[in-house]
From TrEMBL:
Alphabetical list of PROSITE patterns matching this protein: HMA_1 (PS01047), HMA_2 (PS50846)
Organism, as annotated: Paracoccus sediminis
Ranges of Polar residues composition bias in the record: 134-144
Main location class: membrane
Chain intervals with Basic and acidic residues compositional bias: 92-113, 122-132
Domain of life: Bacteria
Subcellular location: Cell membrane
HMA domain location: 12-79, 148-215
Keyword line: ATP-binding, Cell membrane, Membrane, Metal-binding, Nucleotide-binding, Phosphoprotein, Translocase, Transmembrane, Transmembrane helix
Name this protein carries in UniProt: ATPase, P-type (Transporting), HAD superfamily, subfamily IC
Amino acid sequence: MTTGLSAPSGGERLGFRVEGMDCASCVGKIETALNRLGGITDVTVNFATETLQLSRDTASTTTSNDIARKIRALGFDVTELPPAVIPSTPARHSEAHSGHDHSGCSGEHDHGHDHHHAHHHDHSDCGGHDHGQLAQTPVSRTDPTSPPNVSMRVEGMDCASCVGKIEVALARMPDVSDIRVNFTTEMLELNLVPGSGTKVADIERTIKSLGFGVSNTRELSSSSDVAVDVAPAPAMRNQRWWQTRKGKHVIGLGLLMGSAYLIAQFIPLYAEWIFALAVVAGVLPFARKAFALATSGSPFSIETLMSVAAIGALVIGEAEEAAAVVFLFAVGELLESVAAGRARAGIKALASLVPKTAILLDPSGAQRSVPATSLRVNDLVLVRPGDRVPADGQIVQGTSSLDESPITGESVPRAKAKGESIYAGSINVDGVLKVRVEKAAADNTISRIMLISTQK
C-alpha cells in the first residue's frame, strides 16, 4: 500500500477512490464508519469526485488495508490513491461535499435500494469496462526506489480500469517492481531486476495477452546506462475508427448479425442455430481476453461478465438476445476507445502550441535561433508579429496584441505592453516584443496544464 504524505499532526495523509456512492447518505455512512476506527481523523468524502481523504496516526494499529476493508464491507468499491494526488493538509468539510445538492436530501435515504449489495456493476462513465475489480487487493504503489529501466508504449487502454488490469498482471511477475502506467500518454515504466528470469519479451507477451498492443519498447543498458530500443516504434498514423481493431470487430459483428437475421427469415427452423453461430464467433475474442485476465489476477472483469451472460443466454435458448448483447458490448468498447483517443489528441495538441525554436538576444543585441527548450530564466527573446511566444515571460520592450485563446480561451486578442506577463503558446498579432523569460520550458503554463492532465 502507499505510504501516505505527512500530516501536520505527525500522522500521515491517505487518499482513496470510492465508487458506488449514490447520494449524500452514502457519504455519511462512510464518514461515520471510519470515524469509529482508532487513530483516524479528518475524514472527508467528496461525493462529486468519488474521493476520500483522511489522517491516520502512525502509532495506530489501524492500517490502510483495514480502512479499505471497512469501506468494502459497506458495499462500496475502493482503491488507494498515489501520494502525489493527496493534499498534505485536510480539506475543509464544506469543500469535501461540494458538487452535490443536499436540498431535499432527507438524511438516511437509500434511493429505493440497499447499499449492502456487491457493487460489481459499473458506476462510472467508463462504458464497457468494469471497476469492480478494484475491490481486489490494491497493487503496491510505493515511491520508486530507482529510475525505471524499462519503458514501452501500451496501446488500446480506454479507461483507468485498463491501467489496473495491466498493473495487477505485471505485479504478479517475479522481479518486476515500481510499475507505473500513464493512461493519457499510454506509457508504461517499470523496474526489472538485471539478470532476472523474467525478460522484457515476457512482459510484452503478458500485456498482449490482455488485449493491448505494445510498441516502442526501451530498455536501459546496465553497462552503459544508455536506452536501447528493443522494439522500435512503428510509424505513427492517424486511424479512423473503422480502421482500428475494435472498429473492424464491430463491423464484422454487424455483418454477421445482419446475415443471421436475413438467413433466419428464409430458414426459420435453423434461426436459433444461426444466431448461436454468430454469438460464438462474436464472443470468442472477449472470452479469450476474460481468460487471460483471470489468469493474471483479475477474474471479475466485465469481459468475464459479458461472456457468462452471452453463454447463459445460449443455454436458455435466447440466441438472438445473446447476439444483441455481444454486438452492443462491442459497440460500447468502440465508443469508449474513440472518446479516449480524442482526449489524448487534445493533450498532444497542447504540446504543439509551444514553438520548437526561439530567437535569443545576446547581451550585445545579436540574434540567434535556439531550441525553445534550452531557454533559461532571465534570457531575452525576440517575438515577431505572427510568432508564437516560446516561454512564459514579461515584456521588457514593445507593445502588441496577443491571441491567448489557445491557453485561456479568450477569443479576442488582448493588448499587452511593457511590464505585463505573457504565456508560452500565445500568438503575437501585430507588434515586435522583447520578452524576458520567467519560467523554463518544463515549468511554463502549457507544461503545467499537460502535467495535471496526464496525472493518473
